[in-house]
Amino acid sequence: MIRRLIATSLGEPPAVLRVASVPDDPPPGPGQVRIAVRATGLNFLDVSLCRGEYPVRPDFPMTPGVETAGRVVEAGPGAERLLGCEVLACPALPHGALGSSVVIDAGLVVERPSHVDPVTAAALPVTYQTAWFALERARVRAGETVLVHAGAGGVGIAVTQLAVARGARVIATAGSPAKLAVCRSQGADVAVGYDDFEKVADDVDVVIDPVGGDLLGRSLDCLAFEGRLVSVGMAAGPPPPVDPARLIARNADLIGVSWGSRYPWARPAAVRHAYDELFRMCASGEVRPPVTRVVSLDEAPAALADLAARRTTGKVIVFLEEGAS
Fold first, then answer.
1. Which of 77, 196, 215, 290 could lock 314 by a disulfide, CB 3.0 to 4.6 Å apart?
2. pLDDT tens sequence across 222-270
3. 103 with 32: CB under 8 angstroms?
4. What string of DSSP letters covers 36-59?
5. pLDDT in tens, 98-145
6. Which domain holds residue 297?
7. CA atoms within 13 A on the CB side of 199
8. 106 shares a domain with 61
9. What angle do CA 266, 65, 16 make, to 5 degrees?
10. Can you tell me the distance from the alpha carbon of 42 to that of 40, in angstroms, rounded to the nearest whole number?
11. How far is it, in rounded angstroms, from Cα 89 to Cα 110?
12. Count of CB atoms within 10 A of residue 116's CB?
């Protein structure tokens, strides 16, 4: 038997998620591996899955958790090379990683270098890959100005660190003095509240928006000529419809990025390249995953509620002792 966090209906995480002891998965099939989970990152994506708001709606019973670090303890035909390796992986839903083990396609697994510990590694896939591809799609160059909303959150901090590494200037928004201080500590040149960002973010080259709601429309008005706005989430709900005339007037681009729903399968070579660069930047200190809280599997539903209510900063990681049942 293994322990696993399971949802059988839609709703807020504490209401629909429970820790259950269930029979272990069948042995890995061809091209699959079983991972003994060490650490799994929590994301707003997991909240959206529980609520039924994520673009991909998995079948029930569903286990969230789309980024994990662990050890390969069993390998199916064609995946034997990974047996015994420490790895980083992004499971395919509905069989997520918030449990003591997970079976996953070997193509969604990368070996974890020894200089990146499991907790740090589990903070990389969703937030840093989302930030990486958002900046790639926005074609951010040295000397440009990037406005990032929710700058004290996981994606916001990742965007700030990676934009600074590209030589960009960063303006970050957040909702409290403590969170504004986090934004500055991560490299933001300017940190400002949501009510005031238009005063300091006139003619920015790029906006990265994980918040949505009315912030998206307000941010469009901050774009410079040929500016680019990348929507990566809707933590505050869907934004109002956008009149194309607002884009035409600025020759602006409005771009959507959902990394976890497509990139690992649709662009595997680009994803592996991004991991290589992120591992390199961890070694150099340019990337510093901001793990602010480590919780147990039993504490995960409450931690997701805190994440949904914006009571967290940085990254929350669920840590499991290998072999725990």
1. 290
2. 999 999 999 999 888 889 999 999 999 999 999 999 998 889 889 999 9
3. yes
4. EEEEEE--HHHHHHHHT-SSS-PP
5. 999 999 999 999 999 999 999 999 999 999 999 999 999 999 999 999
6. 2-123+289-319
7. 8
8. yes
9. 125
10. 7
11. 6
12. 21
